[in-house]
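PT: before anyone asks, these are the final sequences, not the draft ones from last week. 503 residues across everything. Please model them as a single complex and drop the result in this thread when it's through.
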Amino acid sequence: MNPVISYLILYDKLNVSKSVTPQSKDYAAWYTDVVTKAGLADYGPVKGTMVIRPYGFALWDNIKKIFDSMIKETGHVNAYFPLLIPKSFLAQEAEHVEGFAKECAVVTHTRLKLDEHNGLIVDPESKLEEEVIIRPTSETVIWSMYKKWIQSYRDLPLLINQWANVVRWEMRTRLFLRTTEFLWQEGHTAHATGKEAEEETLLILELYRQLAEDYLAMPVYTGLKSESEKFAGAEQTYSIEAMMGDKRALQAGTSHNLGQNFARAFDVKFQTQDNKEEMVYATSWGVSTRLVGGVIMTHGDDKGLKLPPKIAPYQVVVVPIFRDENKQSIQDYLTPLLSDLRSAGVRVHEDWRKDSPGFKFNEWEMKGVPLRLEVGPKDVENEKVVLVRRDNSEKQIIQKNKIAGLVPQCLDEIQTALFKSAKAFRSENTHTVTTYDEFKDVIANQGGFIRCGWDGTEKSEIAIREDTKATIRVIPFDENFKGLKCIYSGAPARHEVIFAKAY
RNA sequence: CGGGGUGUAGCGCAGCCCGGUUAGCGCGCGUCGUUCGGGACGACGAGGUCGGAGGUUCAAAUCCUCUCACCCCGACCA
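LR: through. Structure below.
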């Protein structure tokens, strides 16, 4: 055969195959392929919007449940504030407006009507006196309410969270990582003292760290954001920062100490125990559906997703190998086994579709199910089952009466292994450099995190960003800048920081 | 908003330069049969106002004009 023709045939086959673009070829394409082929999400009809499909939503739901119980255990309660906010509210805190004004969706009219050609048009008569914005975040509505609710130190602390959607009109969007509308939780707390607010900010950051590391198996650096990277309207922003499979950084959660900025803006005062009037101290904090993107890019490989067992919608998928004539016997064999597994608290899914086993293996690998249980006629005969791990493809044949004991243990091992390997990947790709030339070389050619000295000036920070596209991700809590020099200016370092290109 | 591109079946595309019968292909989808321990195969079948409007022509997916939509690349963001 003519070599050119055979190449074309091969290429065509690759094109139509069910597999994803390899990470090494195009990481961004890999990501999109995985999100869509694993059935996590789809594009919505309005540019930049996303439909979270049932499998993706189940994943988010698990994350949500875990964090929801964490905050409830620490004394927080849920509430719900409106989607629509008077435009004037946003303007009350100077930095806050500046931060969000450019990406607000604005409601200007309240009606549509049919025009003379029977087309739908905005009814000009319905123009609003005061335009309304769709929340990009809820600080302003919430503080307008807190003004009514807080009078005395006895009303504090006020520890409210809401699970909500917000809209930020983004120019460039990516499924889960940055969409025009996204789901998140936003906590908004009010305190009598600055010290208490700071403690709250740090407590939540710690919960975020636990959520990321202990449940999503996603190692994170925790620390403070630089002045230029902090939230609009905050005194301090803390964040958790993770490394994705392409060595770029993902800001996975932020916790802000808002000081008295919003109290001042909305005039929220309280009476102290000794009858003095004081401004309230505030915090706000959030994690979003972006975490789902983080999980995908922390663990995924060329076969698709790899989900940490603690958040996987299905922890075990059962692929029976059967024909019509032996289906019943395999079902009878499986029923008691799976019931044991389920009562051990394992989330089990059975796949009895008529498709071939090989097809199902690939599909469930794409969907990242941690464990696959195969049962065929041979296993029924030998009283065995076949167990295959998604993370390392390890296959073991085990005695049927052992599965209820072994599976939970195996899930734990997978959880730990995913975290370990992500952490190893991060340390392999975290560099220390001594010169700025070296810095530029690493960022341009290797990628990853660079831990180095910074003189603390915005000037150096901006210069580095413009030169290299790398930004200060975080000033880690465990920084040690003694003896370090700023990688850019050579001046004595004020901080040790982590630089990276970020999502 | 500046530069580049694409609109043809659910998805991915060919056809367009050089107008000419019933507009094709792959995947997917439906029915039936044979298969089933790593992406099965065969037979039959459903599915299209060729983005929209106008024009040129005996004849337009194909040529011309206008229009709409979307995608990719450069300043912001969880």
